[in-house]
C-alpha cells in the first residue's frame, strides 16, 4: 500500500482514492487497448445482425496506428504552433485554432446533412414507438398514457425522451411545411452534435490548458465516423450526452475555482440542471451522475472553502436524478387523467444479461418484454420468474466455469471491441431508396472499409487513453507536467480526481453493461467520453518519444 506522510486523514483518504482510481483506470484502459489491438467485432449480415469476432493482423494495426497518429499530431501541431507568415501577413496560432474549430463544426454539419439527404434514416423499433407517442401527445391525444395499452407502461423510462420530442414536434408543427417532424429533429441532433464538440473541447482546455491538446481533440472528434453517423440516430444518446457535456463543463469550472464565490452557485445550479436533463433524456446517464457524486464527495475533503456547496450539490444530483422521470410521468398522468405502470422490472434485464442471444452474449433476446407480457404485466410475477432464471444461470456458471469465462469474454468483446459501436445497425431503417454509396456502406463492399477504419480509430482511442493513465500514475506532482503553461498555478481540480471524472464514468458503464443488457450501441457514449483523454494521452506520448529521441541524439 502506498503511504502519504505528513497529511491529515482527509488528505490521506483523498490521495488514496486518487491513487486507487489511477491504478484501476490504467488496468482498465490497458485491457481495452490489448483487446482492441488484437481483435475486432463486427456484423456483416444486417438482417440477423450477428456479431462476429476476428483476430487482427498486429503488424497492420501497428502501422495504421503510427501513420494515422502522425497525421493527427502533425495537424494538431500546426494548428497550435507559433504564428507563421504567409505573403507578409502573420497568421496567429489562435486564429488557426479558431479556424480548425470552425472547420470541424462545419464538417460535422455537412456530414449530418449528407446523412439526412442520402442515408434517409428513420426512427425504428423503440425509437419509433417513442416518436409515435410524441406525435400523439403533440396532437393532443393522451390515450397513449394508459396502464395496459401503452408502450410507456412497459418502458416508463422513455417518458422523458417523449416529452422532449413532443416539444420539438410542436415547434415543427408551427412551420407550414408538409414533411415528417423527424427531418427537423435530425437537424436538431446535428446541432447538438456540435454542442458536444464545443463543450468537450472546453473540458479539455480546463483540464490541461494546452492548445495542442485542444486541437488534437478537435481533429479526433471530426474523424469519429460513428459519431458522425449517430447524429442521424433519433434516440436519447445525442441529446443526453450534449447535456452531460455542458453539465460536466460547469462542474469542472466549479471545482477549478479555488474559493467559493457568487458565481459558484450559478455554476452548481447550471450543472445540476443539465445533468438532471441528461437523465430525463436517457436513464443510463445515472452512471455519469454517480461518477460526479463520487468526485464531489472526495473533492469536499480538500476544498474546505467550498465543502458545503460541494456536498449540497452531490445530494442535489442524486435527488433530482431520481425524481426527474417520476416527476415527468406524474405530469403526463395528471394531464391525461390516466396512469402508467411501473414497467419491466430491472431484475429481468439482469436475467437477460446472463443469457445467450442470436446477436451476441447478453444482448437483447426478448426475455424481459416477453416475461412481463406473459405475466399480464404483473411486476411481482415477473421478478419471481427473472430471479429463477438468474439462479439457473448462476448454477450453470458454477458447474461450467469455462463456459462462464467464454460467455462474459464474448459479452465484453462484442460491446467494447466493435469500433463502429453498431452505428450501421442503429441507423439501418430507411424511409425510401437509400443512396447507392450509403447502401454499400451499410450492407455492401464499402462496409468492410468502414469497419476497418473504425477499428483503427478505436485502437488510437484506447492507446491515447491508456498512455494518459500511465503518465498520470507516473507523475507524483502537478509541477512535473512540463506541458502546462504555469504548473504551479494549476488548481486541485485539474490535477486530482476531477481529471478522472470521465474515466470513472466509463468504468461505471463497463460494470453496468457487464451485468445489464449488452449492446455495442450502449458503449458509443463512453467512446466519446474517452476522447479528451485520448487527445491528452497521444500528445504526452509524442512528447515523451520526442524527448527520448533528443536525449539519445545528444548523448
Detailed description of the structure:
- The chain is globular.
- With 555 residues, the chain is mostly helical.
- The protein has helices spanning 9-38, 58-80, 93-119, 126-138, 159-173, 181-208, 211-222, 225-230, 237-256, 262-281, 286-302, 307-336, 346-352, 367-374, 379-399, 401-416, 423-426, 436-443, 446-474, 501-515, 520-554; strands at 39-42, 52-55, 84-86, 89-91.
- The chain has one domain (9-339, 363-554).
- A hairpin with a 2-residue loop joins β3 (84-86) and β4.
- A two-stranded antiparallel sheet has the order 1-2. Strands 3-4 form a two-stranded antiparallel sheet.
- The two termini are 37 Å apart.
- Helix content is 69%, strand content 3%.
Give the SSE map.
Blueprint: H1 9-38, E1 39-42, E2 52-55, H2 58-80, E3 84-86, E4 89-91, H3 93-119, H4 126-138, H5 159-173, H6 181-208, H7 211-222, H8 225-230, H9 237-256, H10 262-281, H11 286-302, H12 307-336, H13 346-352, H14 367-374, H15 379-399, H16 401-416, H17 423-426, H18 436-443, H19 446-474, H20 501-515, H21 520-554
Antiparallel strand pairs: 1-2, 3-4
Helix pairs in contact: 1-11, 1-19, 2-7, 2-19, 3-6, 3-7, 4-5, 5-6, 6-7, 6-9, 7-21, 9-10, 9-11, 10-12, 11-12, 11-20, 13-14, 13-15, 15-16, 18-19, 19-21, 20-21
